[in-house]
Design a protein that fits this description.
With about 140 residues, the chain is mainly alpha-helical. The protein folds into two domains: about 50 residues, no CATH class; about 80 residues, no CATH class. It is built from six helices and five strands. The strands form two sheets. Strands 2-1-3 form a three-stranded antiparallel β-sheet. Strand 1 and strand 2 form a beta hairpin. The mean pLDDT is about 95.
Length: about 140
């Protein structure tokens, strides 16, 4: 069904083509109240006040990004502890090292500018995969 919007209220509603045809045939004044909604310019566009609006992308502080990626304060402390245990045992976890490199990159970017941004880079491994790998190296 085509999607129409009310030219006065800008509310959108699905109106069957058969009903539009009937309104046209009978010169129903309702026909003048509605207009076909133009196609959205992008999948994330939002209909506001009779037009499509593309919202600004979400931005994140470095800390919020780490948490979004599954590395909040508790997880980071856990990884520090695991890194110390691995070092004491003379062992290495490649996944833990990759995550540490990723967090260091975020820290370096934060030091350059603490302003929120859209993307700080994705974690190379999930917290679960990293912890499992570190424990496997310790045992």
């Amino acid at each position: 069904m085509p999607n129409y919007y009310n030219k006065t209220t800008f509310d959108r509603k699905d109106i069957a083509q058969e009903l539009i045809d009937l309104w046209t045939e009978t010169s129903n004044p309702k026909l003048d109240e509605y207009e076909l909604t133009p196609p959205a310019p992008s999948p994330n566009a939002v209909w506001e006040n009779g037009q499509w609006v593309i919202p600004a992308p979400a931005t994140y502080t470095a800390n919020a990004w780490l948490e979004k990626e599954g590395y909040g304060p508790t997880q980071l402390v856990t990884l520090l502890d695991l890194a110390a245990q691995l070092q004491a045992a003379g062992k290495v976890s490649e996944k833990l090292n990759a995550v540490k490199g990723w967090t260091n990159t975020i820290l370096a970017e934060y030091v350059q500018s603490a302003e929120p941004k859209e993307d700080w880079g994705s974690a190379p491994f999930s917290f679960n995969d990293t912890v499992i790998d570190a424990f496997q190296q310790l045992n």
